[in-house]
């Protein structure tokens, strides 16, 4: 999907909720400093230093609202990593030894909408700005629907979920406050018996 379609989607969704009142704003700013030691036989040491040192930055601004049966979430974030690992990751990618991404930061290459912009890309720095939540939801007595960028998960999301086939947390992840959002349509029908049926189509682009 081209950039014009992405901007049109964002504009239509934001315009449709602009008249809502009682917005709730929030966010966080986190920084993290980490170092790892690899022995000389580790492949990471072949393409980078044996003891890389990295610092990371996570800025998230949130806006959420609910009016009547409708609700929305808009989350903007800046993610950055500075240190030894960006150069090592690119070297591994050039050698064909890593897949999906060579930055370690979220990208939208396979998502339906491109809502991520890479603005830092040097030997020491990787940085992106992106919309991680952007959806409009409806919550009726029996029907629940959400369309846009949102999270899809099963379980409580606090530990690695082997049945979370779409975007599970890494078993090595330290910060699990927010999962990376995906573009999807979520539907749920609630039966009078208390049972429910859920439909979650998550389209991905073939790279």
Number of domains: 1
How many β strands by DSSP? 8
What general form does the structure show?
elongated
Instruction: Quickly give the structural class.
Output: mainly beta
Fraction of helical residues: 10-25%
Report, as a whole number of angstroms, the end-to-end distance.
12 Å
Our Rg estimate from Cα atoms comes to: 19 Å
Strand content: 35-45%
Largest sheet: 8 strands, antiparallel
The whole-number mean of residue pLDDT values reads: 81
Low-confidence stretches: 155-160
* Number of helical stretches of at least 4 residues: 3
Could you state the order of secondary-structure elements as H and E? Answer: HEHEEHEEEEE
Description:
The chain has 207 residues and is mainly beta. It has one domain (3-199). The protein has three helices and eight strands. Strands 1, 2, 3, 4, 5, 6, 7 and 8 form an eight-stranded antiparallel sheet that branches. The two termini are 12 Å apart.
């Amino acid at each position: 999907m081209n950039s014009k379609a992405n901007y049109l989607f964002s504009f239509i969704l934001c315009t449709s909720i602009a008249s809502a009142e009682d917005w709730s704003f929030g966010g966080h700013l986190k920084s993290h400093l980490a170092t790892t030691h690899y022995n000389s036989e580790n492949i990471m040491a072949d393409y980078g230093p044996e003891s890389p040192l990295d610092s990371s930055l996570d800025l998230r601004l949130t806006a959420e609202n609910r009016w009547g049966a409708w609700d929305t979430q808009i989350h903007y974030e800046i993610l950055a990593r500075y240190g030894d690992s960006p150069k090592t990751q690119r070297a591994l990618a050039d050698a064909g030894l890593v897949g999906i991404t060579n930055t370690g930061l979220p990208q939208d290459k396979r998502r339906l909408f491109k809502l991520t912009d890479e603005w830092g890309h040097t030997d020491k720095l990787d940085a992106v700005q992106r919309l991680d939540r952007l959806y409009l939801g409806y919550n009726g007595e029996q029907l629940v629907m959400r369309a846009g960028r949102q999270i899809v998960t099963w379980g409580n999301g606090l530990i690695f979920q082997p049945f979370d086939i779409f975007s599970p947390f890494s078993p090595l992840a330290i910060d699990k406050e927010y999962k990376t959002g995906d573009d999807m349509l979520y539907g749920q029908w609630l039966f009078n018996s208390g049972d429910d049926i859920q439909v979650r189509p998550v389209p991905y682009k073939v790279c």
